[in-house]
Design a protein that fits this description.
By secondary structure, this protein is an alpha+beta fold. It contains eleven helices and eleven strands. It is globular and about 50 Å long.
């Protein structure tokens, strides 16, 4: 019988250090903290490295414990939640590789089928050589590594992951082709229309499924409802647009939020920091400015 896992009831703010390393590599380092990050997603591959304490990740309806010194792989566009156990604290580093960079790296002949996302399914990894490569990538990027070195280290890390399948916990495939296609259509539509007030009738017409059944099928595949997926897409789009320097009020309007306050609440709930904090602490190829 699966063990029941308690989730934290409080969410004190964590300290974050962030590096944006063009093109498409984003690194986050936290202080030790207690927080639960609700269901969210990224349009890129995320590697979550728990460095101290113990973390939890909930993905495809399953919760996995992550002891210190282990890694969890999240595929592009996959909804997931995570944080610290109840009354516990943890420290983690996140490596996020945007889809565009993934696609560029997937042209390497060592990537099966040229499809990085499917070649690296979501899973829990404990191999120490993989963990070392993650740590080394962060150290070198914080130290001002060149673009060539960054991409070389990242490609070596991805190949190391291919050689260590780990414990696969995600990517549930279904023989029901129609439902599988319907979920893919909904995800693509919500991602490309994140600024619009999409209703269930639109999704029902798109997929040919009844509205209630549509929600059940989508939740069974992704672990969340279409609405929560939409919010997660919007939050990730905000994260991407912040680097353009556009005013936050404009970003809120362009990503479908009611206003800047609504965007700020969702961003902080999902990512643990405000958009303003994220902007002021994101650095391009330089060491981070830390919070006081």
């Amino acid at each position: 019988m699966a063990q029941t896992v308690g989730l934290p009831q409080e969410a004190p703010a964590a300290g974050f250090s962030l590096w944006d390393s063009p093109p498409g590599l984003h690194l986050v380092q936290t202080t030790r903290h207690r927080h639960w990050y609700p269901d969210h997603l990224h349009d890129g591959l995320e590697l979550i490295h728990v460095q101290a304490g113990e973390g939890l990740v909930r993905h495809c309806g399953r919760t996995t414990r992550l002891p210190a010194g282990t890694l969890y792989v999240i595929c592009p566009g996959e909804p997931h939640a995570g944080g610290s156990p109840e009354n516990g604290t943890f420290r983690f580093a996140s490596t996020l590789v945007d889809r565009e960079l993934l696609n560029a790296l997937a042209t390497d002949p060592g990537i099966p089928g040229g499809d990085m996302a499917n070649a690296l399914p979501a899973r829990h990894v404990t191999a120490q050589d993989v963990i070392w490569r993650v740590e080394h990538l962060h150290q070198r990027c914080r130290g001002g590594a060149s673009r060539l070195e960054q991409e070389s280290l990242l490609l070596e890390l991805l190949h190391a992951l291919l050689g260590h399948p780990g414990q696969t916990t995600g990517r549930r495939h279904t023989s029901r082709v129609r439902e599988h296609r319907a979920v893919a259509l909904i995800r693509d539509y919500l991602a490309t229309h994140c600024d619009e007030d999409v209703d269930l009738s639109t999704l029902a017409r798109l997929t040919g499924l009844h509205r209630h059944y549509l929600i059940d099928v989508f939740r069974a595949r992704t672990g969340i409802t279409p609405h929560r997926f939409q919010i997660a897409v919007r939050v990730d789009r905000v994260r991407q647009l912040i680097s353009t320097g556009a005013p936050l009020s404009v970003i809120a309007a362009e990503t479908g939020f009611a206003d800047q306050s609504h965007m700020t609440r969702c961003f902080k709930q999902y990512l643990g920091m405000t958009p303003g904090y994220f902007r002021s602490h994101s650095v391009l190829n330089h060491g981070p400015r830390r919070s006081a």
